């Protein structure tokens, strides 16, 4: 068992409930009835639009970090042609021919030495330029890569246009403990050796596991660790406080024994540099440490705007071998500042069982400028959409009004998608990833009930379909039907990982909404994964033809709720979900 001082400052600290306003404002908004409505500010700066085309030339290493043991590496080039002033976008004088025929002459160099060159097409995404790490000495500080591109349209006789970008290349010494989590910037996924610490290759890890109460739950029943492993989960996120440190180390040791990764939470002390230093040094060599977790909804409580970046920099100075994560609760409140301090930004839309337009806690309306409904800036289901009304709703009979307060599942889609879009605007789409936090609680405060197991699966799939690469529900203990449904889903994920974390299939993700069904597809070689969730409380159907397939070679990989497959498509029961693999890809059948 690993021993040493840790978390003495946490003992006796009260745990903050998720999404409950604990300051005079929440997401910068007044929410008490006696206070006025004042615009909170802090909105993400939208990029200006232009009639002229821009080249947003960017480069990043394919992996962070590389290690001394690695011999080869690669740089990823993105060369989108855009009409928005996003990060590193510059006007490009395009040839008169199709953009697809244009290309850039790209050179990658380090300290004046050329590492690699390539002809990269315009509008390329994650174009790989390999290079050798021979002669690049491992060090704890990053190298500064230089990426240069020249565009010489055939219809112009003047000098070629030049574009440039820089990137941080991390080539670190091999850690004595071997404890490393790599980020694969081709997909945004995590790569790790087995959590048991017995060695093995780096493999993609789909993180799925609950925020799990430590005191009074994990701390008193060590067999829970074995149960969670048997239920198919890959991580445990113990929630502080950790009052019994002997029990804490026993839990972490048992997690390593059974092969569960640790998502380590510093929410209560992340702004205390002395405490963070103590915790990081105590845990950074654990072979089952997957990642750090610092701030829990800092946007809700209006933490200092530099708090997450200060802690992020401190952790990387102390460790550097594991990514840093946090969760944001607000739809758009200083997102840029808080996200700057993370490699993984999570969203936690909680819209089941609460009124998203009128606060039952504070008896006030909720608007973009005022109020706290437990789901910031969430929207109600569309007026008249009776199929989206849960069967246990208290909505009066008759047509569904606007602003009914019944939260739409598509709030999850909007939140994940907006986070992804903002990453692109900032030029962070490769170096930061988005995860999702499905609601797994209810029955108090804003939420009159928890989701059912089938509703929980819909929440999780909506996040994944729109780019989330980890699922960490709040919170365990959770109702049995949620745990059962989450377990079945978790056990199916290893069959989906080859699609979600393959560089080529990740680029092929395509989204559809057919009726109330949210669908995403990923193509990996000769097969296509179809992941679909019915957001309605009524039967819904889609055809294979509507998503560009024929249904040939259908294999069902996962089912939640009632569904029926036919040669023509799938019929889903209320809030049912499914995952399928088809032979071939859009518009093509493999014989």
Report on the architecture of this protein.
Helix 3 packs parallel to helix 4 and helix 6 runs parallel beside helix 7. The chain is α+β, with helices and mostly antiparallel strands and 591 residues long. It is built from nine helices and 36 strands. It is globular and about 70 Å long. The N terminus and C terminus are likely disordered. A hairpin with a 2-residue loop joins strand 10 and strand 11. It has an eight-stranded parallel beta sheet. A five-stranded antiparallel beta sheet has the order 29-30-31-36-33. Strands 5-16-17-18 form a four-stranded antiparallel beta sheet, with no helix packed on it.
What's the short version?
This protein has nine helices and 36 strands. It has 591 residues and is α+β, with helices and mostly antiparallel strands. The strands form ten sheets. Strands 27-24-23-22-21-20-19-28 form an eight-stranded parallel beta sheet. A five-stranded antiparallel beta sheet has the order 29-30-31-36-33. Strands 5-16-17-18 form a four-stranded antiparallel beta sheet, with no helix packed on it.
